[in-house]
Amino acid sequence: MPKLDFDVITLGHGSGGVLTNKLLDSGVFDLLSNDILDERHDGAFLELHGKTAFSTDSFLVSPIFFPGGNIGELAVNGTVNDLAMCGANPKYLSLSFIIEEGLPVKEFWDILVAVKFACQKAGVQIVTGDTKVVEKGKGDKIFVNTSGVGPIHPKAKISAKNIAVGDKIIISGNVASHGMAIMSVREGLEFDSEIQSDTTNLNHTILSLIEQFGENIHLLTDPTRGGVATVLKEIAQSSEIGIDLFQKDFPMDEQVASACELLGLDPLYVANEGLFLAFVSESEADSVLATLHEDENGKNARIIGTVVAEHPKQVIMESAIGGKRVISMLPGEQLPRIC
């Protein structure tokens, strides 16, 4: 814990004065120190070469601490993974907080520690940021925004335009773990073992695949809000392709499946945070899958579908007993505040 003479965040900590500097000096700058951040300038001076990816995201998860992580590492991993889906090597992140008055300083410190370790694991640096405090009742403990940049891998050819009939769709791991980790806490569900969020950084896994398989990886995407179903439906519509999915091939933890059944939720629409979908050329799909199985982030990877010429703009799911249904986008809000 930082050595501070206060226990909770007050409006004064967002004023830009003495309290703000105490909070930042003993927290952000000390814990996340690096040569660029230590300049303490209004912006960051970066060295980037070649084609570069940029992404930004905001995180409003409730509760802010959940089995398997907290909002701090979620914010780092989320933006790191968005950059990785572009075929980029994430390098630098900005980190901004909107804190509700009354947040315990210990909770803020724990979030910062999670940010630090997530950055170390992903190999990125926090180089600039901002902190604001809002009045009690005008926020929900803490909101986090991260933005990031990184150079595109020279072998990456990631674009929906590259998708071709016959492509196989690979999912990197078990579906619905993050959303159900959040919901099991909210609903007080108890199982033999705790459901854990799958939040993690995927950049090392993705870059290794791109280095080995290059342009045979046509598209990468992470099925966060709206889940696998919504993401694939969006791709089918925008690319005017048909997609066939096979329910029996979807990997899912048994307790996650039980939680979905208890709450009446379709796991295909539940958010994920450490998962990606890859559209891969048919000729290399088995090799990509075998490579993923050797990676910690891909040990449960499966081929779940195929791009087809039939039924353009439609996603069709074949059930375990052979029935078929049309998959649509999430029509409304299935799960509130999970990422």
Structural write-up:
This protein is α+β, with helices and mostly antiparallel strands and 339 residues long. It has two domains: 11-151, PurM-like, N-terminal domain (60s Ribosomal Protein L30, Chain: A, 2-Layer Sandwich), CATH 3.30.1330.10; 160-327, PurM-like C-terminal domain (Phosphoribosyl-aminoimidazole Synthetase, Chain A, domain 2), CATH 3.90.650. It is 30% helix and 22% strand. The protein has eight helices and 13 strands. It has helices at residues 18-31, 71-85, 105-122, 177-187, 203-213, 227-239, 254-263, 285-293, and strands at 52-59, 65-66, 69-70, 92-100, 125-134, 142-151, 168-171, 217-221, 242-246, 277-280, 302-308, 315-318, 324-327. The strands form three sheets. It has a seven-stranded mixed sheet with strand order 8-10-7-11-9-12-13, sandwiched between helices. A four-stranded mixed sheet has the order 1-6-4-5, with helices on one face. Helix 2 packs parallel to helix 5. The longest helix is centred in the middle third of the chain and has 18 residues, at 105-122. The chain is globular. The model has no long low-confidence stretch (mean pLDDT 93).
Considering the chains and any ligands shown, give keywords for the structure.
single chain, 339 residues, alpha+beta, 60s Ribosomal Protein L30, Chain: A, Phosphoribosyl-aminoimidazole Synthetase, Chain A, domain 2, 2 domains, seven-stranded mixed beta sheet, four-stranded mixed beta sheet, 8 helices, 13 strands, 22% strand, globular, PurM-like_N_sf, PurM-like_N
